[in-house]
Write a structure and sequence with these properties.
The chain is an all-alpha fold. The chain has seven helices and no strands.
């Protein structure tokens, strides 16, 4: 067998079958919850909450700057409403991204600037999701389980696969 014809299971380095997709800050530890998984989740939840609080303080200073500039009540109100609406949309879109893949990537790209303005909502969604599981774990686990099932089904039913053959009983 040449090097080009070797399968992943015969190369010795990579196991056969689908591989778990990595999650930022967690790698593939979400599969079996190893490597201080719970501690990492708690740390990321606290970190994202601290970042959201710091961002709120920065926005408060910016708002006070608008008040000092005496721009007007309507502009101050519009700024507050804009950040509140953008944060709510960013929270919802970030939360949805943990549950399912986007159906329209172009739409997600068009919402990028809105999610950037509402970054506090994204940070809060990340914090809340870390309290439940690694962000995106449920989605990736479902995809991984489905890929494993399909792999096992293909591997077991493929004709001519010596690993899946049952040995005949000798009499």
């Amino acid at each position: 067998m040449s090097d080009d014809e070797q399968t992943p299971s015969t190369t010795g380095g990579t196991p056969a079958g689908p591989q778990a997709e990595e999650i930022r800050f967690f790698g593939t530890t979400w599969v079996d919850h190893s490597g201080h998984y719970a501690l990492r989740r708690a740390g990321l939840a606290a970190g994202s909450l601290a970042a959201a609080v710091a961002a709120c303080l920065v926005l408060r200073f910016a708002y006070e700057g608008l008040q000092i500039a005496d721009i007007g009540g309507i502009v101050n109100m519009l700024v507050v409403v804009m950040f509140a609406v953008c944060s709510a949309i960013a929270f919802r879109k970030t939360w949805e991204s943990f549950l399912r893949r986007p159906t329209d990537p172009a739409r997600e790209d068009s919402l990028r600037s809105l999610k950037t303005i509402g970054f506090i909502g994204s940070l809060l969604a990340y914090c809340a999701r870390c309290l439940v599981e690694a962000p995106g774990e449920k989605l990736r686990r479902a995809e991984y389980e489905k890929a494993r099932e399909q792999f096992e089904k293909r591997r077991g039913t493929r004709t001519g696969n010596p690993a899946a053959r049952k040995k005949p009983k000798r009499r």
